[in-house]
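Page 37, continued from 36.
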């Protein structure tokens, strides 16, 4: 059945439609944990503070790092990271669409002019 496009092929042409994973920790908890870390003197051990809050220590470490990055000019902010990820997805989808169009163009050119070498 040549010429029919399946739903799976249409999905490939449009790109994957995925939803982001739900957040494991609420945003309020993240903000409170970062605020607690910043206001504490002397600075607490992240692993111990994470245990007290009931979060993974690497999650807390990443929250603190990202909060600091959001305030600095030389690191990507959360908004910039999200925009960069969105732009990369868009570029990937456009490249995939170009490849499909290039293949279709070659196919139809061969159909229109069968004497042309492939």
């Amino acid at each position: 059945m040549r010429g029919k496009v399946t739903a799976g092929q249409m999905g490939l042409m449009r790109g994957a439609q995925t939803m982001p994973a739900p957040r494991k920790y609420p945003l309020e908890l993240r903000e409170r944990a970062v605020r607690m870390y910043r206001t504490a003197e002397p600075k607490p051990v992240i692993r111990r503070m994470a245990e007290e809050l009931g979060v993974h220590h690497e999650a807390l470490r990443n929250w603190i790092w990202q909060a600091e990055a959001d305030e600095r000019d030389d690191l990507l902010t959360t908004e910039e990271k999200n925009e960069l990820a969105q732009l990369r997805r868009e570029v990937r989808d456009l490249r995939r669409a170009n490849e499909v169009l290039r293949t279709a163009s070659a196919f139809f050119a061969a159909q229109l002019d069968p004497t042309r070498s492939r």
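The chain has five helices and no strands. Flag for discussion at group meeting. Helices lie at 7-14, 27-39, 46-53, 57-71, 78-112.
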